[in-house]
Amino acid sequence: MSNDPGKLIIISGPSGSGKSTIVAKLLETCPLPLVVSVSATTRPPRPGEVHGEHYWFLSPEEFQAKRSRGEFLECKEVFGRGFWYGTLKEAVSSGLSAGKWVILEIDVQGALAVLDYDPEVITIFIDPGSMDQLEKRLRDRGTDSQDAIQRRLQVAREEMGLKHHYRHSVINDRVDEAVAQVCRLLCQYDSRIDKQP
């Protein structure tokens, strides 16, 4: 088969671990045909967000209809906000069949749900290094209340306890090094080693 099928990649880690930054830099620097899967959500768009680019913005009714038809690879309600988020199977399969390496930037619970569905997925956990480091990052952001920071740290502790489910773990203490390490890990799965990207 001349068309190499794509690969499914999960990159996750606690809030504040830097996974969004790493994914953005991977897309710019890694030679693999990477794309990020666009998630669906019931939350309203923020200023500047584009339907189909940042998220698929669905009404709660549309979301639940897709959910009942089994159209999500994984989905969950984010408690405290009441909004649903999910990964559409169609968005992933169309990318894979086009030979793309599709990145899901999702939380640990979502990752475990996808692993149930497809155990072959390449999983990478972005480790903040330490809880102290993570707390410092969350405080330096200046976007969360004290309560929100405590909630995020509690969830992060639980997520850190599940990182053994991932094939790879990368400590993000220096972003450029972490990006290079993730790219190297992914390149190990490239069967086109003799071809130049």
Topology:
Blueprint: E1 7-12, H1 19-29, E2 34-36, E3 40-41, E4 56-57, H2 60-68, E5 72-78, E6 83-88, H3 89-97, E7 101-105, H4 108-117, E8 122-127, H5 131-141, H6 146-160, E9 168-171, H7 175-187
Helix pairs in contact: 1-7, 5-6
Question: What is CATH's topology name?
Answer: Rossmann fold
Q: What is the CA-atom radius of gyration, in angstroms? A: 17 Å
Number of domains: 1
End-to-end gap: 18 Å
**CATH architecture title:** 3-Layer(aba) Sandwich
Helix-strand makeup class: alpha/beta
Gross morphology is globular
Show unreliable segments. none
Helix content: 25-40%
Order of helices and strands: EHEEEHEEHEHEHHEH
CATH superfamily label: P-loop containing nucleotide triphosphate hydrolases
Strand order of the biggest β-sheet: 2-7-1-8-9
Mean pLDDT: 91
Q: Count of DSSP helices?
A: 7
DSSP E strands, number = 9
The main β sheet shows up as:
5 strands, parallel
CATH class term: Alpha Beta
